[in-house]
Amino acid sequence: MSAPAQTRSSADLIRAEEPVLAHNYHPLPVVVARAEGTWVEDVEGRRYLDMLAGYSALNFGHRHPALIEAAHRQLDRLTLTSRAFHNDRLAEFAQRLAELTCLDMVLPMNTGAEAVESGIKVARKWAYEVKGVPADRATIVVAAENFHGRTTTIVSFSTDETARQGFGPFTPGFRIVPYNDLAALEAAVDETTAAVLLEPIQGEAGVVVPDEGYLAGVRELTRRKGCLFIADEIQSGLGRTGRTLAVEHESVVPDVLLLGKALGGGIVPVSAVVARREVLGVLRPGEHGSTFGGNPLAAAVGTAVVELLETGEYQRRATELGVVLRGGLAALVGKGVLGFRARGLWAGVDIDPAVGTGREIGERLLREGVLVKDTHGSTIRLAPPLTITSEELEGALGALEKVLA
Length: 405
Ligand SMILES: Cc1ncc(COP(=O)(O)O)c(C=O)c1O
Fold this sequence. Notes:
The protein has 405 residues and is α/β, with parallel strands linked by helices. It is built from 14 helices and 15 strands. Helix 9 (214-225) links the parallel strand 7 (193-198) and strand 8. Helix 4 (90-101) runs parallel beside helix 11 and helix 12 packs parallel to helix 14. The protein is globular, with a radius of gyration of 21 Å. Pyridoxal-5'-phosphate is lined by residues 55, 111-113, 116, 147-149, 199, 203-204, 232, 234-235, 260. Its EC number is 2.6.1.13.
């Protein structure tokens, strides 16, 4: 990385944001100016190991050469057409993404929340047209402690009061059951149910991994009851857990898959609803869309992401380095760590409140040159780029041990 061009200091830039930027985030006090691989650099030239990877949007690290090259090549040729016309990149993207995920059709969108909204719309339409649910009676069953995004419909079925307070009235048609509870799900699904919408691992909740058999149970239940299984793999998918998709750990293929974050290679927002033909086939011209969804730049980067995943290298790295991550965290239990949950290169670490809040640990790690993010007060999330080396990972675990001491 060469020297940053920014002439204003970090403190100055943080101060400058205050009056002009909505206060909907509480970032750690670091101003990133450059990045490469697993490392970012602030405006003063200090380097930090990125152990958050843009909430898994940077699974392949910052500025992965193959992704940057694909983006540059596309920038030089064609960037946007809208879906009023065809573009010469979209067919390949959709075909390879469908193949990678063992599904049939793709609805390209931009952000994760849009993919979730689109999945909800498609499931409702499927319920009316294919399942025969009476008009406007469709229900969707979701899990408590979910995180699916920030739109008004999505926060309608959140159980996080901070996400909801002040944003009503809410969209009806959702039933909330405890996560990881098949009996509760069985009781909630009835003839009006269009879909069960779940994260295979609940990321924002603190990397909550369900019991073995839960996802296979949801698959069996939804099939038996004649409703769709929508898996939101926006955070858990695309290599993070050691498989292309987290549902693969239980050999499950959902009816509808929601992807986002890493699908854009950390370069552009790219999301998608990927589904069986019977489901996405319900959409007809004019019923849904997005100006930017499926744009040629997004399709080019998305195709390059699929190509990286087709090699299996990133899934293998997540599996192998996941062993190092779990081993390092296990050694910290009782030494400032109360417990942790992990799968692949993804962990939620519960910090002993006697040692500090999640935020305080994040601030201390920042001073040690390691970036993490807290969630729910006392938990920190670790989700480094899948390109991290074992030495870098051990360095981050060493820094954690130091700040907990
Ligand atoms: C599981 C899941 N779904 C949906 C979203 C929303 O994605 P976006 O922030 O791109 O709208 C997120 C974001 O963290 C997520 O983790």
